[in-house]
């Protein structure tokens, strides 16, 4: 056999190694994720080759990933029975940056390649991340091409590597990482198990760790919808969200353009914030081709969707995405918007098709929609359509949408009226409603303190402004008065007497046609605060 041959890394690789080792990843454990994802890629490529090639090295070798650790030798070994690499491929794939193996493979696939988008690899520092923890890395590899012998590639990451022929190799690659002393935690079985559970639970091939089967879970979001049973969805939800209930809603969808996305997200049964538990943290996980990028990305979905669970997977994300760079932020933002729009559409459809179920959802999670309506400017219009309120025309406990309210508005009615009080009885027994009732004007009944804030922020719906029914700005048409009215002069005297008696407690006392049964009411003349808001402020000052 020929003697080992020494090569210099391409200048770009030297640079890259420097970046990887010193700054790119803060979490060293990520190297396991990268090597396992490479193993999985290699197996997937082999599976495709099996469809077209007859002559494959070790054709009967099962497709699997074998991981072992050795605490004494301080090594971790990750082996796959994938397509392997020839001598030339080792040099090209692991020594130069211009030739990403995935890119080349795609080219080789030719026309069919475009459809096989799951093979599109991203430029990544994947393999080189091993040098964050390694004294040295050995890659034993044997290609699927039967004429090619096996080789071993060796490097300490400092600037050069060696390639030498190696006997007795089976098809695939075996990466042996000799750990730096301070990184010997990665030679521990439990530690690797922990990392696999975190990042590689969805790998699509059997994985063993120190001869024990590592349980993987199906990446349900990549399967086609019509093959998946409800129970499978529920099981997946329970696993992913660490939950015990069944989800209320699920959204499973795929898109190729403008971004490649596979998403499977859920609405849980309970709003735990409402139950008094801590504020929810965003928990829709971000994946790139089944490999976890971030379990709880902060900039992916809008804040108000923090109750959502599930997975968003995009091939367009580089594994080494950094949440800091502007470009990546924009990408996450785009992804988030696509999902948010789809989810809002789902709710809209559900509200139309199954109003009762939707209302149950709304009881529980409506508060998040209100938050979104008030604060998420991008999706405001879509969210406002989903809001529901009781009103003077709904039966107790039943609700109306704003669209339905508007459809019932009387000719000439310009505003959407609302009253805020803790419950229906308080509104119905108060003096504010009667003038509206007498004129057949519908008033929304709002029972949550946040409603005020929502109306102030949303301002209008379908061109109609929201207006508190207890506001002094309310102008109602005359209705024929029943019973005996005071003469104009008597009414003026009474108003003056009231004004003098109440003094500075009121801004103004005037006669009005607004009331029907009650003799007097207090209205709110404040341009910025409704009565409810003032009560809240007062309570806060105490
Ligand atoms: P990427 O996976 O994004 O292409 P990596 O740095 O992780 O980048 O790997 C570089 C290349 O090395 C891969 O594209 C692939 O061609 C090759 N490679 C790495 N690991 C393996 C493996 N286990 N089996 C076969 N080829 C591999
Ligand atoms: Mg990789």
Automatic annotation (TrEMBL):
Gene Ontology MF annotations: ATP binding; ATP hydrolysis activity; ATP-dependent protein folding chaperone; unfolded protein binding
**SUPFAM superfamilies recorded for this chain?**
ATPase domain of HSP90 chaperone/DNA topoisomerase II/histidine kinase, HSP90 C-terminal domain, Ribosomal protein S5 domain 2-like
Region described as A: 1-323
Instruction: State its location(s).
Output: Cytoplasm
Primary localisation category: cytoplasm
Q: How does it assemble?
A: Homodimer.
Family, similarity comment: Belongs to the heat shock protein 90 family.
Q: What is this protein called?
A: Chaperone protein HtpG
Tell me the name of the encoding gene: htpG
């Amino acid at each position: 056999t020929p003697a080992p041959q020494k090569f210099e890394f391409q200048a770009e690789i030297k640079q890259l190694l420097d970046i990887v080792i010193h700054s790119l990843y803060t979490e060293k454990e990520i190297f396991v994720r990268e090597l396992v994802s490479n193993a999985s890629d290699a197996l997937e490529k082999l599976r495709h080759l099996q469809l077209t090639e007859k002559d494959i090295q070790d054709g009967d070798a099962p497709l699997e990933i074998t991981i072992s650790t050795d605490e004494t030798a301080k090594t971790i070994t990750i082996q796959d029975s994938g397509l392997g690499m020839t001598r030339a491929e080792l040099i090209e794939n692991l020594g130069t940056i211009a030739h990403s193996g995935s890119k080349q493979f795609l080219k080789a696939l030719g026309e069919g390649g475009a459809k096989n988008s799951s093979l599109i690899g991203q430029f990544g520092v994947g393999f080189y991340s091993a040098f964050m923890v390694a004294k040295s890395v050995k890659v034993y590899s044997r290609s699927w091409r039967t004429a090619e012998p096996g080789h071993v590639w060796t490097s300490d990451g400092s600037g050069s590597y060696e390639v030498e022929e190696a006997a007795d190799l089976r098809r695939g690659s075996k990466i042996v990482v000799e750990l730096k002393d301070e990184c010997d935690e990665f030679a521990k079985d439990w530690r690797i198990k922990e990392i696999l559970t975190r990042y590689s639970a969805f790998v699509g091939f059997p994985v063993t760790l120190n001869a024990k089967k590592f349980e993987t879970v199906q990446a349900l979001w990549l399967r086609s919808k019509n093959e998946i049973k409800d129970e499978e969805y529920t099981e997946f939800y329970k696993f992913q969200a660490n939950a015990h209930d069944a989800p209320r809603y699920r959204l499973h969808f795929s898109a190729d353009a403008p971004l490649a996305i596979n998403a499977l997200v859920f609405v849980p049964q309970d709003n735990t914030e409402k139950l008094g538990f801590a504020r929810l943290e965003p928990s829709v996980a971000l994946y790139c081709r089944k490999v976890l990028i971030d379990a709880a990305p902060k900039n992916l979905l809008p804040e108000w969707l923090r109750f959502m669970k599930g997975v968003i997977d995009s091939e367009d994300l580089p594994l080494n995405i950094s949440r800091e760079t502007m470009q990546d932020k924009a990408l996450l933002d785009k992804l988030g918007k696509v999902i948010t729009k789809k989810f809002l559409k789902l709710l809209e459809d559900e509200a139309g098709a199954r109003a009762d179920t939707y209302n149950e959802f709304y009881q529980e999670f409506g508060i998040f929609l209100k938050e979104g309506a008030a604060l998420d400017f991008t999706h405001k219009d879509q969210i406002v359509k989903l809001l529901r309120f009781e009103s003077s025309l709904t039966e107790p406990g039943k609700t109306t949408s704003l669209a339905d309210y508007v459809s019932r508005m009387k000719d000439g009615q310009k505003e959407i009226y609302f009253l805020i009080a803790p419950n229906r009885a308080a509104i119905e027994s108060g003096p504010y409603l009667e003038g509206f009732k007498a004129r057949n004007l519908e008033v929304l009944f709002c029972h949550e303190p946040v409603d005020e804030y929502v109306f102030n922020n949303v301002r209008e719906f379908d061109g109609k402004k929201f207006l508190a029914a207890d506001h002094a700005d309310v102008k109602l048409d005359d209705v024929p008065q029943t019973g005996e009215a005071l003469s104009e002069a008597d009414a003026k005297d009474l108003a003056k007497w009231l004004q003098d008696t109440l003094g500075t407690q009121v801004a103004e006392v005037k006669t009005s046609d607004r009331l029907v049964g009650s003799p007097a009411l207090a209205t709110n003349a404040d341009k910025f605060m409704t009565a409810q808001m003032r009560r809240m402020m007062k309570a806060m000052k105490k």
